[in-house]
Amino acid sequence: MSLTGLYDLPAPAKINLFLHVVGRRADGYHLLQSVFVPIDWADTLHIERLPDGRLERVDLGPALPPDDLCLRAARALQQASGTAWGARILVDKQVPWGAGLGGGSSDAATTLIALNRMWGLGWPRPRLAELGLKLGADVPFFLGRGPAFVEGIGEVLTPLHVPALPLAVVKPPQSLPTPEIFGHPALKRDTEPVMISGSFDGAAQAAAAPRQDARGAGAVNWPAEWDAVTAGFGRNDLQPPAEDRCPAVADAVAWLARRYGNGRMSGSGSAAFAHVAEDGDGGPSMATFPQGDLPAGWVGRHCRSLQALPLAAWLAD
After folding, report:
1. For the chain, which end, N or C, has fewer CB atoms within 10 Å of the first or last residue's CB respectively?
2. Distance CA 290, CA 156 (A)
């Protein structure tokens, strides 16, 4: 039966457990190593098929830019596939933009996955990911299966097992333009690369052997030196230039550290996250921020990391 609509489609945000800049290509793009983990703070999309090739978007929440990543993704897939179908994309935007949480890239990925299914294209994951990379470096991750060790400019993904982590994520009102952060003179661009053993669970931490880094210099215990998401391994190389450009980033990290004992900036935006201690029932010790607890203008949620992306099963490898 032909699909005419898909509803309540999640587009989850992500955090970067760490983000290292390990080099720079001749074309100016920075080479990264990071662990991306999806979280249950998500936008919701509803997509309806249109018969005349029209592409349109309806904002159910805050107004998005006229030509946002959802429309650009739909147009790119329409042109690449040659389909005559169109789509109406309804977006309930909940993930803040300019936060380093990948909200726009996740919306684009959910749009590609849904239209691939609705338009009957049957494109496999690698083909969609190649198209997605042209839209943004984070899009291939959201077309993957779940947590991943990310390399290159964002297109090289190694799946990782990461246990469900209780998190607090906050964003001050200021947003950060990514080009300014990557162009900042204080950005460290030569962090030593590392290799991974493939898991972040407790058993692997206990059993992990020293690993040689990609340059063969020194050894890195991975993930034995990582303590589940606090500042136990690595850092975000973008955080110092971001704090210089936007002091509110340092405020967000410090606010989290006072409450949870840890805090780190996520991605290239102004959001920060912390690992939250669990109570005796295995849940976060505080389900929601008390009213008035966050500084004026901030947004934030207690979240949990996801061990799989919600629409991963809709794509064939």
Report:
1. N
2. 40
Lookup result for tokens 């204080």: 186
**Residue 191 sits in a domain of what CATH number?**
3.30.230.10
195-216, pLDDT tens digit by residue? 765 555 433 332 233 333 332 2
Distance CA 236, CA 65 (A): 28
What are residue 5's DSSP bridge partners?
Answer: 48
**CA quadruple 170, 175, 177, 183: dihedral, nearest 10:** -70
* Beta strands 86-92; 55-59: pairing state: parallel
Domain, as residue range, for 210:
5-314
Average of per-residue pLDDT values in the chain: 85
- Look at residues 68, 99, 264 and name the one whose alpha carbon lies nearest to residue 177: 99
H or E segment and range at residue 110: helix 103-118
Beta strands in the chain (DSSP E): 5-24, 30-50, 55-59, 86-92, 148-152, 156-159, 166-171, 210-212, 219-221, 264-265, 272-275, 299-304
Residues 6 or more apart whose Cβ sits within 8 Å of residue 28: none
Rounded to whole angstroms, how far apart are CA atoms 274 and 213?
A: 27
| Residue 15, beta-bridge partner list | 37
Is the alpha carbon torsion for 232, 170, 155, 43 positive or negative? positive
- Four-point Cα dihedral 126, 179, 63, 60, nearest 10: 30
The CA distance from 304 to 306, in Å, is 6
The structure tokens listed for 117 are: 């299914």
What residues are labeled active site? 14, 138
Q: Residue holding tokens 């505080």? A: 286
Domain count, the chain: 1
Tokens 């300019």 belong to which residue? 98
Q: What is the pLDDT of residue 26?
A: 85
